[in-house]
Amino acid sequence: TLVLVLNGPNLSRLGKREPEVYGTSTYDDLARLCRTTAAEAGLTVDVRQTDSEAELIGWLHEAADGGHPVVLNPAAFTHYSYAVRDAVAMIKAPVIEVHLSNPGAREAFRHISVVTPVVTGTIAGLGVESYRHALLAVATLTR
Ligand code: DQA
Protein backbone atom coordinates (compact mmCIF):
# COMPACT_ATOMS: atom_id res chain seq x y z
CA THR A 1 0.00 0.00 0.00
CA LEU A 2 1.30 3.44 -0.95
CA VAL A 3 0.58 6.03 1.73
CA LEU A 4 0.91 9.74 0.99
CA VAL A 5 2.35 11.62 4.00
CA LEU A 6 1.40 15.23 3.28
CA ASN A 7 2.70 18.21 5.24
CA GLY A 8 1.44 21.77 5.00
CA PRO A 9 3.03 25.19 5.46
CA ASN A 10 6.16 25.83 7.54
CA LEU A 11 6.78 22.16 8.31
CA SER A 12 9.95 22.14 6.18
CA ARG A 13 11.44 24.32 8.92
CA LEU A 14 11.07 21.66 11.59
CA GLY A 15 13.98 21.63 14.04
CA LYS A 16 14.57 25.37 13.80
CA ARG A 17 10.91 26.41 14.03
CA GLU A 18 9.82 27.05 17.66
CA PRO A 19 11.66 23.93 18.91
CA GLU A 20 10.05 24.35 22.34
CA VAL A 21 6.70 23.68 20.65
CA TYR A 22 7.57 21.39 17.74
CA GLY A 23 10.74 19.63 18.97
CA THR A 24 14.28 19.46 17.61
CA SER A 25 13.82 16.75 14.98
CA THR A 26 14.28 18.14 11.49
CA TYR A 27 12.02 17.59 8.49
CA ASP A 28 14.61 15.11 7.14
CA ASP A 29 14.45 13.23 10.46
CA LEU A 30 10.66 13.15 10.14
CA ALA A 31 10.81 11.83 6.58
CA ARG A 32 13.30 9.15 7.65
CA LEU A 33 11.08 8.10 10.59
CA CYS A 34 8.14 7.75 8.19
CA ARG A 35 10.14 5.62 5.75
CA THR A 36 11.50 3.35 8.53
CA THR A 37 8.07 2.90 10.12
CA ALA A 38 6.47 2.21 6.75
CA ALA A 39 9.06 -0.45 5.90
CA GLU A 40 8.43 -2.16 9.26
CA ALA A 41 4.67 -2.04 8.73
CA GLY A 42 4.78 -3.30 5.13
CA LEU A 43 3.79 0.06 3.65
CA THR A 44 5.41 2.37 1.12
CA VAL A 45 5.40 6.11 1.80
CA ASP A 46 5.74 9.22 -0.26
CA VAL A 47 6.58 12.06 2.15
CA ARG A 48 5.90 15.57 0.84
CA GLN A 49 5.73 19.14 2.14
CA THR A 50 4.31 22.30 0.59
CA ASP A 51 3.60 25.84 1.67
CA SER A 52 0.96 26.06 -1.07
CA GLU A 53 -2.71 25.33 -0.45
CA ALA A 54 -3.21 24.67 -4.18
CA GLU A 55 -0.39 22.11 -4.29
CA LEU A 56 -1.70 20.34 -1.17
CA ILE A 57 -5.18 20.14 -2.70
CA GLY A 58 -3.69 18.66 -5.89
CA TRP A 59 -2.00 15.96 -3.82
CA LEU A 60 -5.29 15.20 -2.03
CA HIS A 61 -6.98 14.80 -5.43
CA GLU A 62 -4.17 12.40 -6.36
CA ALA A 63 -4.95 10.37 -3.21
CA ALA A 64 -8.67 10.35 -4.00
CA ASP A 65 -8.07 9.23 -7.61
CA GLY A 66 -5.41 6.65 -6.71
CA GLY A 67 -7.19 5.22 -3.67
CA HIS A 68 -4.17 6.01 -1.47
CA PRO A 69 -4.44 6.36 2.32
CA VAL A 70 -3.12 9.68 3.64
CA VAL A 71 -1.32 10.85 6.76
CA LEU A 72 -2.05 14.57 6.74
CA ASN A 73 -0.59 17.40 8.77
CA PRO A 74 -2.43 20.40 7.30
CA ALA A 75 -0.46 22.73 9.66
CA ALA A 76 -2.17 26.15 9.87
CA PHE A 77 -4.63 25.15 7.09
CA THR A 78 -6.13 22.84 9.76
CA HIS A 79 -7.83 25.78 11.35
CA TYR A 80 -9.42 27.56 8.39
CA SER A 81 -9.12 25.83 5.01
CA TYR A 82 -12.53 24.61 3.88
CA ALA A 83 -10.87 23.87 0.53
CA VAL A 84 -8.49 21.36 2.16
CA ARG A 85 -11.41 19.92 4.11
CA ASP A 86 -13.52 19.47 0.95
CA ALA A 87 -10.58 17.77 -0.80
CA VAL A 88 -10.13 15.37 2.14
CA ALA A 89 -13.86 14.58 2.08
CA MET A 90 -13.45 13.02 -1.41
CA ILE A 91 -10.91 10.43 -0.20
CA LYS A 92 -12.40 6.96 0.44
CA ALA A 93 -9.21 5.39 1.89
CA PRO A 94 -8.24 6.12 5.53
CA VAL A 95 -7.01 9.65 6.26
CA ILE A 96 -5.21 10.19 9.57
CA GLU A 97 -4.83 13.82 10.69
CA VAL A 98 -1.58 14.34 12.59
CA HIS A 99 -0.08 17.16 14.62
CA LEU A 100 3.28 17.39 16.34
CA SER A 101 1.89 19.62 19.08
CA ASN A 102 -1.43 19.26 20.85
CA PRO A 103 -3.48 22.08 19.28
CA GLY A 104 -6.22 21.64 21.88
CA ALA A 105 -3.77 22.71 24.59
CA ARG A 106 -2.65 25.86 22.72
CA GLU A 107 -4.17 29.16 21.54
CA ALA A 108 -7.95 29.27 21.06
CA PHE A 109 -7.68 29.60 17.25
CA ARG A 110 -5.96 26.18 17.17
CA HIS A 111 -8.81 24.47 19.04
CA ILE A 112 -10.87 24.31 15.86
CA SER A 113 -9.93 21.83 13.14
CA VAL A 114 -12.13 22.13 10.07
CA VAL A 115 -10.54 18.89 8.82
CA THR A 116 -11.33 16.64 11.81
CA PRO A 117 -14.99 16.01 10.82
CA VAL A 118 -13.91 14.37 7.53
CA VAL A 119 -10.89 12.29 8.65
CA THR A 120 -10.78 8.72 9.94
CA GLY A 121 -8.94 9.72 13.13
CA THR A 122 -6.52 12.21 14.63
CA ILE A 123 -3.20 11.77 16.47
CA ALA A 124 -1.70 14.86 18.11
CA GLY A 125 0.78 15.95 20.72
CA LEU A 126 3.39 13.20 20.36
CA GLY A 127 5.96 15.14 18.33
CA VAL A 128 7.30 13.18 15.35
CA GLU A 129 5.97 10.02 17.05
CA SER A 130 2.48 11.18 15.99
CA TYR A 131 3.47 10.18 12.44
CA ARG A 132 4.73 6.77 13.52
CA HIS A 133 1.45 5.99 15.26
CA ALA A 134 -0.53 7.32 12.30
CA LEU A 135 1.31 5.01 9.89
CA LEU A 136 0.78 2.02 12.21
CA ALA A 137 -2.93 2.92 12.27
CA VAL A 138 -3.01 2.98 8.46
CA ALA A 139 -1.32 -0.45 8.40
CA THR A 140 -4.00 -1.83 10.73
CA LEU A 141 -6.86 -0.19 8.85
CA THR A 142 -5.72 -1.43 5.43
CA ARG A 143 -4.83 -4.97 6.50
C1 DQA B 1 0.62 21.85 13.69
C2 DQA B 1 -0.29 22.69 14.61
C3 DQA B 1 -0.86 23.89 13.87
O1 DQA B 1 -1.66 24.67 14.75
C4 DQA B 1 0.25 24.77 13.36
O2 DQA B 1 -0.29 25.83 12.58
C5 DQA B 1 1.28 24.02 12.59
C6 DQA B 1 1.70 22.70 13.05
C7 DQA B 1 1.33 20.72 14.45
O3 DQA B 1 1.82 19.80 13.79
O4 DQA B 1 1.42 20.76 15.69
O5 DQA B 1 1.85 24.53 11.61
O6 DQA B 1 -0.19 21.27 12.67
TrEMBL record:
Example of a GO biological process term: quinate catabolic process
Active site: 22 (proton acceptor), 99 (proton donor)
EC number: 4.2.1.10
InterPro entries cross-referenced by the UniProt entry: DHquinase_II, DHquinase_II_CS, DHquinase_II_sf
HAMAP family registered for this protein in UniProt: AroQ (MF_00169)
Family to which this protein belongs: Belongs to the type-II 3-dehydroquinase family.
PANTHER family xrefs: CATABOLIC 3-DEHYDROQUINASE
Name of this chain's protein: 3-dehydroquinate dehydratase
Organism lineage string: Bacteria, Bacillati, Actinomycetota, Actinomycetes, Kitasatosporales
